[in-house]
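The protein record quoted in full:
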Amino acid sequence: MRVGDYEVELIPLGRFAMDGGGMFGIVPMALWSRAYPHVDDSNRIELVTWALLIRGQGRILVADAGVGDKLEPKREQQFALQQETRALERALAARGINPEDVTDFVYTHLHFDHAGGSTRRGTPLGRDGGGADASVVPVLPRARHYVQRAQLAWARNPSDKDRASYLPENWEPVIAAGLLDELDGPTEILPGIEVRPVDGHTAAMQLIIVHGSVEGTGAIPGSSGLLFSVDLVQTAAHLPPHYVAAYDNHPLLAIEEKRRLLTEAAERRWIVCFVHDPFTPAAVLRQGARGVEVEQVVTL
């Protein structure tokens, strides 16, 4: 799909599961399970890790990298992780892109399910390096990597509440390679591509907005762009403002941030990408009788 000056695509990097109560916070299961009925016997809901691929103006940008391959087997089992080895590299290769071709990478935030695939152990995919390498290196060796300065500071000194979500091997090798740029607040990282930090989920998680009309197959009349909403609106079932995760550090702030963002998204007819929803990956929204709701499901 073309948005403004760019071709934009969602890339699935694997599926996993998380506790439904954790994902919907104080909302009772009897309510949230009507909107998101994909629950297993352990009360975990089925989720996906989407990456955003943006191509145009001589640049190739990737946002988020999924879980990656460095989790311990115990945690892979805990999250019922289902993904190919080197998922990001394989997904790019399927689209004719080598890791060295990627010019820009955005860490929306540094939680393991968004940042894990940005680094790897061992030799590059499809190469014979003569055995495994215990070192951890960037997957995208030529890309400038962007993160909000406040998010990096938080990741390096997290609270007891979210400490388990931050694994330094997911970003420190990128810093050691001299590839990380720290941002301070909202900015345009490329012409027409804005990052906008929000703080309810975690400090300075950055949303991505691609500005411009939506053209080509699946064109959306009146749309002025695309929003990668990350963990502020994880699935389409999280559209009600008070449906916030127990994982949010500041749930009341997340509710207010979500209310403002979704109102803007509906007014501007943005395509909103739900970063963990395998069933409704993206949609155009409208104001309904009970608040913002899905008007049209979109395939990218």
